[in-house]
From TrEMBL:
Protein name as annotated: Probable acetate kinase
Presence of the UniProt keyword ATP-binding in the record: yes
Pfam family, one: Acetate_kinase
Matches recorded under InterPro entries: Ac/propionate_kinase (IPR004372), Aliphatic_acid_kin_short-chain (IPR000890), Aliphatic_acid_kinase_CS (IPR023865), ATPase_NBD (IPR043129)
EC number: 2.7.2.1
Binding site for ATP: 21, 227-231
Cofactor: Mg(2+)
Record's keyword terms, sorted: ATP-binding, Kinase, Magnesium, Metal-binding, Nucleotide-binding, Transferase
Site, as annotated: Transition state stabilizer: 199, 260
Family that this chain belongs to: Belongs to the acetokinase family.
Residues that coordinate or bind Mg(2+): 14, 419
Amino acids binding substrate: 109
PANTHER family: ACETATE KINASE, ACETATE KINASE-RELATED
Amino acid sequence: MVGKEKPSYVLAANAGSSSLKLQLFKITPDNDALIPHLVIKSSISNLSSPPTIFKFKNHDKEGHDVESQELNDVASGIEAFEFFISYLKKDRSGVDSGLVDKITHICHRVVHGGEVGEKGPLVVNESVLKQLEEVISLAPLHNGPADRILKAALKSFPKATNIAFFDSSFHNSLPDFIKAYPIDQKIAKERKLRKYGFHGLSYCWIVKNVARFLEKDPSEISIIALHLGSGASMCAIKNGESYDTSMGLTPLEGLPGGSRSGTMDPSLVFHYSSRPADSDKVSSVELSHAERIMNLSSGFKALTGTSDFSKILATDPPTRESDLAINLFLDRILGFFGSYWLKLNGGRGCVDAVVFAGGIGESSAAFREMIVKGLDGLNGGFDGIDSEKNQEGGDGRAVVYSIGDGIGRSRLLVCETNEELEMVKECLEDKGLW
Ligand SMILES: Nc1ncnc2c1ncn2[C@@H]1O[C@H](COP(=O)(O)OP(=O)(O)O)[C@@H](O)[C@H]1O
Ligand SMILES: CC(=O)OP(=O)(O)O
Ligand SMILES: [Mg+2]
């Protein structure tokens, strides 16, 4: 039901391509504001490289954490969601019985918003669901699972307000000449064939938190942000807004990912395969055979046998395959880097910071160092890397921290991104959603 209740318990569900991440918050009022307090943080990851791993932390009660448990029967986003909800109801979760029924709002990350997502978050009803169904095939690894989770949540939580937050909304600011593909513009318009861009909830979080770290207004910062996770993208952010981003009509364009090819010669697809559609067990949507291969069994998985980048980096001694994957990824990242550097005017101080985020960007000091080495050629006045700070990583409390030596004019930063909390904060601030 829409607009009925003030948020008191809010669940956030983030269906990524290889994981489902969940956070549950208790909401308390503070004067005019509503403050979220984290109660549960959980993830079900490695959905694309089994065994699936379950993590669970109860921030309210000690003794109920699950560090890392292998799950045998959970292989998709919807199975992960159902597993999590039933786990919440079990004694061993440490959650008070009845709490699940107190959930008033559920925030869902929906990667592709199509046209309906242009305006920002939406309370989900039949009409929104229908419009979202039309773009499922434009983000097959994400929107299919999110659609199934949304429908399951509507059924299991009939009293809660379900809100869809779109990754693509952040990129509405892309200029027309960057949004457009060089094809017949009449057809492009009719079929809505343009660059949308994704990881927008993460970039939104990054802009706000990096601005706070730099003690500037979000509208004053220009950065090159790298969200490197199972899906990887980069974003040129000018005055707080998306100016260009590497993903496109679908999350397949741009950088390679765990199981995604990223950009290739468009003709490669026709030379690779012209076999008919077959069913897709993972996302339950129809993909042409070639599109399925480019999304599900390309990228690092095709080059090395695993989509888990931490395993590729840890291959010791390195193999021809692990070297190829790492160097190819670096090459594509540097390609976008050079391009975005120029697009943001180039020269010393044209960006306030280079920001690393996502599973790989936040966790791999070694890969960050390789990228920063590659930036030397730009001679653009970046901080050099402070190896010690880079190796140390964050202290678990700071959302943004520096890994640079403080000499350059553009900082080197890591931002612990938090798409779940980004949605919840927006939900609490936007009374129109409840
Ligand atoms: N310590 C690490 N070093 C390198 N890569 C890591 C590390 N920890 C996690 N990763 C990688 O991060 C990726 C998952 O990132 P994440 O942003 O959580 O993905 P998603 O949201 O798409 O499920 C996986 O490829 C994983 O191997
Ligand atoms: C858009 C995208 O690729 O998201 P994720 O990295 O979470 O799979
Ligand atoms: Mg993700």
